[in-house]
Structures are given as structure tokens and as C-alpha cells.
Amino acid sequence: MKRNLRFCMTSVIALACSMFVSVACEKAPAADPEPEQPAEPEPIVLTAPENGTSIDLINAEDVVFSWENAKDVNSCKIRFSRSEDLSKPYDVRAMSNPVSYKYKAFDGFLEALGVKNGETATVYWTVIAAGKEDKFGKRVRSLTVKRLPEGPEEPYEQRIADPITVKVAILYEDPIMPGTDKYMHEVCTVGGNGYRWNDPVQQAKKFEADLEEASHGVIQYEVVKEVRAERLFSYDNTKTGSEKEYFSIEYFRDVIYADGHECPGIGSGVEYDYVGMLKYYGFDKMRDSGEIQEVWVYNHPGSGMYESRLIGDGAFWCNSPGISVGAPCKDLVTVMFCNYERTTDLALHSYGHRFESIMKQVYGSWRNRAENNLPAREVELNNWERYACHNLEYDRYEKGHAQVGCTHFPPNGRYDYDYDNRTDYVYTYADCWFDYPKMVMANPRRVNSSEWKNGQQGWMMYFFSHMPHFKGINEDVNDLHLNNWWYYVVDWNAAKKYERELRDNYEE
User: Mind listing the pLDDT tens digit for each residue in 318-357?
Assistant: First the structure.
């Protein structure tokens, strides 16, 4: 029995060992394969000019760059720098391959890099994929270039653009109130505060004078027609039907502007019939015949009007949706709403937003702080984006510095409408914009609100006065827009036509 038990135990052990060996010999599951690493993209191959090429711009016509097109690259930029590591770069859009730059344009690139007139300097360059800078390595070549000699500096007064006469029609929706011999502005109160409104005729005169002064005289308004309204074009947009139901003068007197009532506006059932107004007074025909470029409507605060609006073929956003479909005129007409319950600084404020909308259309973008997508390098800002940079935006490029600012933000503004901030100082390059387009961002001045003194009125005049207002076209190939920004604002189509003419002459 003991022998048999030993035998059984031995057999069990042998069987267990056999099973262990069997399991151990089974094929282990395959490990997950290592993921294939994407191949490092090849640098864009530069083909011309040859490395070390020397160019004297006084003897050059065009400077031509070319490269081998890389896979999955749709657009490129040429990056220039005084350093081989491409620090402090100046980027230029490459509109084609090869791309040719006129000698004057290339001279402008060198100026942007800090090369002085007549100086010979070594410049390094490469081609990068737009928006994919980090996905492609960089080959770098050098150029030895001699800049054009310095010409006689044209005095500031001689650089100012020739005056543009802007013909305007003014509509005063300030009717005689029924049962009185007084205008609406003389009768109405809001919220029971007894505040008398302003005379729109006097306001229009000041508005005109302020704009002419702020533009350095490049804009000269000519009032060709003034109309005293006997009716209103505000209507109830909540009611359906083919015919608009216009509010009567008595309605605003008895219901809207009675004590204890607030003024309605857009979104509260009150809207303004721009098309009907233009047709009724014949302003549409006056625009198409060239008799006027814009219309100012002095109206009460509950009229349902936007601060500014573009109407006509191709109308776009101008601080409000453009009216293109159903527009009564072909050419663009700007309609400004000036609220005679408020002071003239608010009219300038509205004009500031008009300016911002138009300049965004000119340059195609306005990447501001609110959108939180300013580019990584200051050099990539277009000139409008650069101009509008107050401290809160420009701080990421240069601590404690600013450019000019925008309607809501002066250079040192910490929040919207911070026009009287004498506590915070910043350094601003605002003075450099008087040298536009040959700006050198140097010698900023330390300022606070004492620079523009008079609250919003002073700020708006300061903001407008620095706007480029000069002759010609910006020859920087990254720009090629008029040096007089006011032209775009007062007559878009005429300005774009003039821009095309100057571009054609420049590119010949």
C-alpha cells in the first residue's frame, strides 16, 4: 500500500509537471507593434537666389525668389532676418512661386529689418509654410544687399493727402410736436428727469467741424441738403403684413417719452425703415447721381436706428448688417444715426465704430483681445491691428507699451470707456503714426489720459487725429493699401478704385 501510494503521488507530480510544460510551451500572444513614427518633413528646398548672392538695389529691377514646392503646402512666406538663426524676423507673403519683388518694395523690407539707406548688409532668408512653421525644417541662405541711398525727406505738410469733399444730406427727425410750436428736442423728457435734449442743427455743425479737424483737413464735409422731418420712419417690427406700420409723433410724445418710461430701441419692437426713408426723400437717387456720399439722420433715442449702416450693392457690416438686397441705390451710401438726446462726443464714438468696421474690411481681419487670437509675433499684425492695439493687447509683445488704441480703449485703458485714467501710465508709439507708412517703432512716450484731456471727446479726437492721412499707397507688399485711411471710410467704392489704380502703377 505504501508503494502504491508513492507511485500515485509520483504520477500526480509527473502529470502536474507535464501540464506546466504544456502551458509554458504555448505561443504567447504577440505584443502590439510599435507605432510608426511619421517621417520628419523635409525642409523646403530653396532654388534662387544662390547662397551669398550680392545685390545693389540701385542697379536692380526685380529681386526674384523661388523654391521647390513641398507636399501639402498651399501657401508660403519668405522670412528675412539680420541673424542666421532668423531671430527678429520680417515675414513677407509669397503670392506665387517664383515671386518677384520690385526693387523699391525690397528696399522697404530692408528698412523694416533696420538696414539704413545706402548701407550694405547681410540678410538671411528662408521659405516657410504659412501656418505650418513648425512642421517643416528650414534651409537658410544669405544675401548681401546694398540699400537705396536716402532721398530728400518730404516735409509732413507735403505728405498730407489732398482734401476730399464729402457731400452729405442731413435729415432732422425732430418734428414740431402737435399742439405746440416747439420741436421734439425742446419738449421731450426721459424717465421724468426733466433733461432737455440738444438742438440737432447745432450738433451737426460741431460734428462736421470735429471730423474735419481730426482728419487734418483731408475730409471736407459739404452739406448739400437739410430736411426738417414732418413724419417718422420708426415702425413696429412685431406686426406682420405687407405694409409697415409707422409710429406717429403723438405715440412717441404720449407713450414713449412720458414720464417714467424708458426709451425703446432695436430688439424691443421698434425698427427704422432705412430703405423707405431714402426713397421718400430721394436720397437714393442723389447717391447714384453723385450728389451725396452719405446721410446723417439726427433722431431721438427710441428710433430703432443703428449707429451707422451701409446700404447699396455689396453692402457689408458697418457696425450693423449691410442692406444689399432690396437696396434702393446701386452705389454705397452710409447712413449715420446721431442721437440728439446725447452730446457730440457720442456721435464721434459712433463714427469710431464705423471707422473700425471699414478698416477691418480693408485689411480682412481685426484680431483683437476679445477674440483671444492675436498672433505670436508682433510683426504678423496688419497695420490696422497694430494701430488699434492698446496696452491690454500690446502687452504680450512689449510689456507696458501700446500703439494708439480703439474706440473703447485708449492706450492705457483697463476696461471699456476708460477715458479718464490718470492713474495708469503706458509707453505709446502713437507719435510714430505721423510718419506713416515709413514708421520706425522707436522713442515711445509715457502717457496717461492727460494726453487727450477732455474725456471721451478728447479721446475720440486723439484717436482720429493719428489715423494715416497721407498721399499715395503703402508700398509694403504685405499692405498695398492707401496711406489715407479716411478715404475708405467716406467713399468705399471710390477709394477701392483709386487703390487699384495706384497698385497697377506700382506693379508696372
Answer: 999 999 999 999 999 999 999 998 899 999 999 999 999 9
Exposed e or buried b per residue across 123-150, where buried means at least 16 C-beta atoms within 10 angstroms of its C-beta: bbbbbbbeeeeeebeeebbebebbbbee
Looking at the predicted structure, is the pLDDT value of residue 253 above 80? no
* pLDDT above 70 as % of the chain: 84
C-alpha of 60 from chain center: 35
Query: Which residues, in sequence order, are CB contacts of 269 under 8 Å at separation 6+?
Result: 236, 237, 238
Please classify residue 479 by burial: count the beta carbons closer than 10 Å to its beta carbon, then call 0-12 exposed, 13-18 middle and 19+ buried: middle
Beta-bridged to residue 169, according to DSSP, are 225, 295
Q: Which CATH number fits domain 46-146: 3.30.43, 3.30.70, 2.40.10, 2.60.40?
A: 2.60.40
What are the DSSP E strand ranges found in 237-350?
Answer: 270-272, 294-299, 308-311, 333-339
Distances (CA, A) of 419 to 52, 352, 412, 457: 53, 14, 9, 9
List where CATH 2.60.40 sits in the chain.
46-146
Q: What is the DSSP string of 137-175?
A: ----EEEEEEPPPPPPPPPHHHHBPPPEEEEEEEEE--P
Cβ pair 173, 227 in contact under 8 A: no
DSSP letter assigned to residue 1:
-
Extract the C-alpha cell encoding 228.
426738417
What is the per-residue pLDDT for 71? 72
CB contact at 8 A, 406 and 425 = no
